Amino acid sequence: EAAEKGGYPHFMLKEIHEQPKALRDTLSGRLATDNSRVLLEELQMTPEEVKQIKKIFITACGTAYHAGIVGKYVIEDLARIPVEVDIASEFRYRNPIIDQDTLVVVISQSGETADTLAALREAKNRGARVLAVTNVVGSSVAREANWVIYTWAGPEIAVASTKAYTTQLVVMYLLGLYLAQQRGTLTQEQIREVVTALRELPAQVEAILGREEEIKGFVQKYAHCEDVFFLGRSIDYAVAMEGSLKLKEISYIHAEAYAAGELKHGTLALIVEGILVLALATQMDVFDKMVSNIKEVKARDASVVGITFEGEEELAKSVDEVIYIPRTHKLTSAVLTVVPLQLIAYYVAVARGCDVDKPRNLAKSVTVE
Ligand code: G6P
């Protein structure tokens, strides 16, 4: 097993470090060399078929569900198709309104999760066409769907998903752009901007991993916290959900993600000294609002760790620590912001002596209901 970990103490840390390669592999052959468009040969949808899509449902469990929430922001923004995201165990039992004009996207690293597979079958029974996003070639969801887009993350062993999530995000961008190209919802320049951003992601993740020691250093101060809140707006909120799940899964700390604008509707009552707040601030159209939210939690004596783009020096004045990430397109930021959150969860869990790769009561793949 030590050999399989390639010198890392845990599979999770190894897999966090494998992300630049996993992202490169997932992008490989799917971006035009001149960055003018994405190529998704496996989709083979005619422009008519794409135009017929009136609504998209994304359904999945756990981390894959969180990738789906990012997918909603991305697909709605790029392709202007309404997207609903549903937890697979809810979708399958709640009589969803779907027909032949609905595209159902199931996301599953293993391709074998019982609830996700049941949701896929339910969607097909109701006449929807199904696209599977999975990491395992020939898995059940891959076999039963109408189309498959593979994530090329390689085997993921740690229960807490890392490289599967970031590659699922990449597929959401590719899908959003593919649909946008077919429906003509973006200018050539807008497509190029996102494609260029995608191409830069692997090296940018490498740059963040280069700051690992810095993150490991300050995390020790917060490892004793028993309540952590993750705040963000827009896509940052979707990533906050995944950051919160990572921390819960492996460190057993109570963590919650909140849309920052919702603070005043409840969570603020829980913000007191000793609470740690992880504040994601990469969405520039709501940056000032996010900074006001951060000031609100700081004023109640919470410790705040902020994540923002390099060059946003203002944030440092309102928080205890800042983690800077390379600047990218507003939609692709998710792939970068999640990396420090993965490292924080990992080092907090290690500091607390937890079994990082095999957290209590959890399984890598849940094939029974
Ligand atoms: C389990 C794992 C999670 C995973 C979820 C969905 O709960 O512990 O890490 O996100 O299943 O798995 P899937 O293979 O369908 O992506």
Cα(first) to Cα(last) distance is 30 Å
- Structure classification: alpha/beta
Order of helices and strands: HHHEHEHEHEHEHHHEHEEHEEH
Helix % is: 40-55%
Contiguous helical run count: 13
Shape: globular
Proportion of beta-strand residues = 15-25%
Give the uncertain stretches in residue-range form: none
Strands, count: 10
Mean pLDDT: 95
Largest sheet entry: 5 strands, parallel
Question: What small-molecule ligands were found?
Answer: 6-O-phosphono-alpha-D-glucopyranose
Radius of gyration: 20 Å
What does this structure look like?
It contains 13 helices and ten strands. It has helices at 11-17, 19-27, 47-52, 62-79, 88-91, 114-125, 140-144, 163-183, 188-209, 212-219, 235-251, 287-298, 333-351; strands spanning 55-60, 83-87, 102-108, 129-134, 147-150, 227-232, 254-259, 276-281, 303-309, 321-325. It has a five-stranded parallel beta sheet with strand order 2-1-3-4-5, sandwiched between helices. It has a five-stranded parallel beta sheet with strand order 7-6-8-9-10, with helices on both faces. Strand 6 (227-232), helix 11 and strand 7 (254-259) form a beta-alpha-beta unit. It binds 6-O-phosphono-alpha-D-glucopyranose. 6-O-phosphono-alpha-D-glucopyranose (G6P) is lined by residues 61-64, 108-110, 113, 116, 159, 161, 362, 364-366. It is an enzyme of class 2 (transferase). Homodimer. It is found in: Cytoplasm.
